[in-house]
Design brief:
The complex is a heterodimer of chains A (173) and B (164).
Chain A (H helix, E strand, L loop, with lengths): L3 E2 L2 E16 L1 H13 L6 E7 L2 E9 L3 H15 L5 E12 L6 H12 L6 E4 L4 E6 L3 H11 E2 L11 E5 L7
Parallel strand pairs in A: 1-8
Antiparallel strand pairs in A: 2-4, 2-5, 3-4, 5-7, 6-7
Helix pairs in contact in A: 1-2, 3-4
Chain B lengths: L2 E5 L4 E2 L5 E13 H13 L8 E7 L2 E9 L3 H10 L3 E14 L9 H11 L6 E5 L2 E7 L3 H8 L3 E2 L1 H6 L1
Parallel strand pairs in B: 2-9
Antiparallel strand pairs in B: 3-5, 3-6, 4-5, 6-8, 7-8
Helix pairs in contact in B: 3-4
The chains are: A alpha+beta (173), B alpha+beta (164).
Chain lengths: 173, 164
């Protein structure tokens, strides 16, 4: 079977995942406000509406996990929202281009299922897809993707190293 | 290589603020043991199935998959889902709003701006995703204008940026 050509991939480690079950949307709004006050970035977010509220996964950098977990747990207790699930060590693999088609999504999901890997979350952007999986599964997933996809020569997934500093004040204030 | 960028934007600048209409949003509940079969079928579709967005959450033995695609293509997805034993939990006419901007995947506070804008518009999304540099909101198509109005208080597209 010919391998699907992709343009590239990236991986990102040192992430954690908070999983929310049946929180109201106002709860998610409140959590996002609290995390913003603590300058917690969310590199990946997937929340689906469900019968009993919102459910989903929120990724953050691992060195901010305990602060975020404390905030979310306090909100959960105070408002009596279902407790969070926390997965401390997760990684993200991003493949591109999506090209506005289902093909890359389907190939990636089939690839992971074919080696019995069960990710935690998966989502698309306009141009790419990202899969979140336990850090311990990263090597196996990368190996499976290497076999499944035709990568540009000499490519290996570069680890993303981006740090963005945001000022709370406008320039000149 | 490390990139350091500084942002302080109120409202947040985006490359555009508009809704993609004419979509159908399907929530599929697929046994994890069957997800590979469903994916194989979708990968084999010719011509390929156009896609607006897709997300999956794994919960125990079930994968909760949401797929948003042009309405007229939905029957092909539904057929593949039925053949793989996936159950369709929700099927809704939907609009999708994509928010993109520089370093959107690396800046804190953007999800808060989206959720605040939607709350002010008194609407809740069906799906909210933040993946790499895109924030994506799928919502009932009847709510898209209200959502754009609410989001417009927190995000600004290039035309409004020039005017401002």
């Amino acid at each position: 079977m010919p391998r699907l050509c992709i343009s590239g991939w990236k991986c990102r480690r040192a992430l954690s995942l908070l999983i929310l079950h049946d929180w109201p949307w106002v709860g998610l709004t409140a959590l996002s406000q609290a995390l913003t006050l603590s300058c917690v970035n969310l590199p990946f977010l997937l929340v689906q509406a469900g019968g009993n509220g919102a459910r989903g996964g929120v990724c953050l950098e691992r060195d901010q996990l305990h602060e975020a977990e404390d905030i979310a747990a306090a909100m959960s207790r105070w408002w009596d929202w279902p407790p969070l699930e926390v997965i401390e060590e997760v990684a993200a693999i991003t493949l591109y281009p999506l090209a506005g088609e289902m093909t890359l999504v389907a190939e990636a999901l089939a690839c992971l299922a074919g080696v019995d890997l069960r990710p935690l979350a998966f989502g698309t952007s306009l141009a790419s897809l990202t899969v979140i999986l336990p850090d311990s599964a990263l090597g196996a997933a990368m190996e499976a993707f290497r076999r499944r996809f035709e990568l540009p020569p000499e490519s290996s997934p570069p680890e993303e190293r981006v740090r963005v500093v945001q000022s709370p004040l406008k320039r000149g204030q | 290589m490390e990139t350091v960028a500084v942002y302080c934007e109120h409202p947040v600048r985006t490359y555009g603020l508009k809704a993609q209409e004419g979509c159908l949003l399907l929530f599929l509940e697929c046994p994890t043991s069957q997800l590979g079969k469903l994916a194989d079928q979708l990968a084999a579709l010719a011509p390929p199935l156009p896609l607006v967005s897709c997300g999956v959450l794994w919960r125990g033995e079930v994968a909760s998959m949401q797929v948003c695609l042009p309405r007229e293509e939905a029957s092909r997805l539904e057929l593949a889902a039925a053949q793989a034993g996936a159950r369709i939990g929700l099927r809704r006419e939907a609009s999708v709003i994509n928010l993109q901007g520089p370093h959107f995947g690396d800046r804190w506070g953007l999800a808060k701006e989206v959720l605040a804008g939607l709350e002010e518009a008194e609407t809740a999304p069906l799906v909210l995703m933040g993946v790499t540099h895109t924030l994506q909101i799928a919502l009932d198509s009847s709510a898209s204008q209200a959502a754009l109005n609410g989001l417009g208080r927190h995000f600004v597209g290039p035309e409004a940026s020039k005017r401002g």
